[in-house]
Amino acid sequence: MTKNGTPSEIMQKQIWSASFGGSAIVGTAIHDGHLLREDLLASIALSNEERLYEEDPFTGEMIGGLTNRIIGHRSRFEIDLNRARDAAIYLTPDQSWGLEVWNEPPSEAALATSLSVHDDYYAMLASFLDRIEMSHGRFVLLDIHSYNHRRGGPNGAPTPQETAPDINIGTISMDRSRWSFVVDAVMAHFASADIGGRKLDVRENVAFQGRGEQTRFVHDRYPQNGCAIAIEFKKIFMDEWTGKPDTRIVSDIRHAITELEPVLERLLRESR
Description:
The protein is α/β, with parallel strands linked by helices.
């Protein structure tokens, strides 16, 4: 062991990682993480597989080509950074897809520790975005998530395509008229991309509307300069029951997101 700890010990301590550079585009994957604090392991009722099913694996990899990116390393079952602070810890089944998350409720001390992560994240995000606003004026945050479409089981019928687009763009918390030139470009970009040898079905506010805490935070704090778009990829890039990825599709999505950065940078420049 080195004096700074083994790689696994370091990862266990990490809550998120952030990369910052000279772009007005930010990618986040705040549900990518699977780690849990050690003090929660004895009280959580869910298996690793049950937790993974509701998490967003591989979304961190999808944004890996962006200049500015924030990737969460902790499970949403420890703290959900995309929910308001008072709902960010799943304590009852109605908050967590009907799942009984805990064998016994976390202690008050454990709850306070988890909530401090929520506080720290949004303090960090504010500082991160303040610097981008100072450097570039307007900016776009791509809030990358994924969603399940085979909840009937490994052999069950998938959710019908009409209610489960391949990519759902959530825009409900933004001033849509102000940012239409960005949203329309994002949708056109993904609709024209070759993902796994085909074009994807890209629609707005169908399966989800973008009501998460992070997009709300951006639009409340930066009403003139911040555009946050919730982008939900249906889990066509993996087997949602085994967790096995389709590496070609993950790579294609990463490429499409990476190629979106200069498109949006140009649009922001031209619309000044």
